[in-house]
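U., I forgot to send this yesterday:
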Amino acid sequence: MRIVDLSMPIYDGMPVYPGDPEVTVEIAHTRDRYGWELRKLAMGTHAGTHVDAPSHMHEGAATLDELPLDAFFGLSQVVCANDSWPRARGLFFAETAGEALFGRLKELAPPFVGGELTEELERLLLGAGIVTYTSLNGLDRLPRGVDFLFCGFPLRIREGDGSPVRAVAVFADDIGGFGKGEER
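Result:
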């Protein structure tokens, strides 16, 4: 089994979307004074590698705590716009994907879509109830059109519109361990 970390590190002062809360990471307790170390973390729910719930862009839509856990993991593939896309897979784009792809995506109804998504495409996907992942690090290192198990679980934030995640791609030594993929 091979595990590929797709997450950006979280650190004090890291870049954020313009207008979003700044990320601060401060030492709150030290071993010398308290006998343990503890950090205080302040950040927006869309900092770094994160998942977006439909409620992020649509009033009254599903929040993180209303979505089932299987909305955040499953068999997936990295694809390009001109590829044939598999059914019943999460889809990730290493290149920019725009709203012109929405019709195909809506028809396939993947459990989640991620990667280099335009804001317009993200809004359409979330409106269709499809969870999105953004700010993934290293999709270009993954083979295109090969099944992997994606895991990107959010924090369980009540009425959450999004959450940082530790996103990983897991490749089985024998692809039969995850399923061979469907006919296209």
